[in-house]
Amino acid sequence: MAPRDATHATAEHIARRSYGKLVAFLAARTRDVAAAEDALADAFAAALTDWPASGLPDNPEAWLMTVARRRLIDTARRRQTSTEAASHLKLMAQELEDLETTRDADTDIPDQRLALMFACAHPAIDASVRAPLILQTVLGFDAATIASAFLVSPATMAQRLVRAKTKIREAGIPFRVPERADLAERLDAVLAAIYASFAEGWSDPSGTETRRRNLAEEGIWLGRLVASLLPAQPEALGLLALMLHAEARRGARRDAHGEYVPLAEQDPAAWDDDLIDEAEALLLRASRMGAIGRYQLEAAVQSAHVARRKTGATAWAAIEKLYAALHAITQSPVVAINRAIATAETRGPAAGLAALDAIAIDARLAEYQPYWAARAGLLARVGDAAEADLAYQRAIGLEADPAVRRFLERRRAALRS
Amino acid sequence: MKYLMMIYNNEPAMLGASKEQTAETLAAYAAYTEALQKSGALVGSNRLRPSTNATTVRVTNGKTQVLDGPYAETKEQLGGYLLIDVPDLDAALSWAARCPGASRGTIEVRPIWEMTDYR
Where are the beta strands (DSSP E) in chain B? Predict the structure, then answer.
């Protein structure tokens, strides 16, 4: 590799590893995330011209921090007339002291990413912008990339992000891990935001959109970060286990021809054993803490699904119980559908259909593909081909992914043979 | 940071409350304001007379218009305010949650736009 490319690669590596840490530290006292991001962008630009010429600094993170801070101080000085600039400078001087006092013991920059994530997922921030805000401030994603993943126009996404950052600064949203009393509830918002980014990436059907695939990887990266910073929070471990379980089966969702393969028909040999083992170990650790929650339950469902990797049989009775517990927590119609599918496996398709009928009054289900697909499958099994045909038609009409559509078409065609 | 806590409540229900209920509410507010004061967070507070006593003023094309009644005719009306000085939004929100008005109506928490923040 040419030196310039090598430096570039190093800078990119540091950008990925340190971005959120630097933003969090630069913005922690002033709460001015946008200013911290701008200063950091300048510092990265300076690194790309400086490092190839003078060689890599001993501590690139500290180098970037120094340049970014100088830039922040310059910006504040330009507003010297206002007393606000003075208070800004005072805060930064305090920050510098913090850094110096911590430096002797530990040359690393204090990690305030978790505090930054709690600020981004604060209840005073609109729920729909929390995940995008975390992706931008902790990982440095640009608004256009985030917008494409969340199916929003780049201009709209940019505007929402700016508004949220302004609110953090002006409403005084603190950079702090909440007190014990509020921690569980507030952590839930952080985990929900991480899961939202993972799900956006994982839902990419063909796995060919690299932007989205990165999003799933970044979701796991954030999940690992939170689990390592809050190792005593069982739901943080549960979420990571859930994402690893899903990730382990990413490749198995398509066959060699790009056709959709439902979970029940996937070849366990195509699953990633290392990821599954890691997920199982996390779930075990979480369960020993004795505080069950939604992510642990969902991870446990995944665990029961992949049990056939060793036993040869899916643990349907366990899955049915887990979904019942999940439903008690979430009241989600999606969970109710999955429970009905499990019921069909333990007590027969007629019992599963009865369970689906019981939730059919929920108007949201009329437009929900998995409801119609589940219904069609169960109707076919009880021998009602005519009704099954209609249900498959509804499901096909609601599906966006061509591979899944073709799969449903094949099932529908099989009714007539 | 300074925050204004605006207490919005159901005015007809408030005015229709029994003597005992009203006394209870006032006692709860007295205790709450006392606690805020003791913590050093209270800057100022006032209860407002009902919105039927409100008068609205607007100047259009140099002509002053004076109207009887509040800015918006709604059931939920601004019934009072507290100005507090606390470290951050979380501290302000935890005070807002303890306000007696929060369990009957809504507290809007707004940061004060300090003169030193003007750019």
Answer: 2-10, 42-47, 55-60, 63-68, 76-85, 106-111
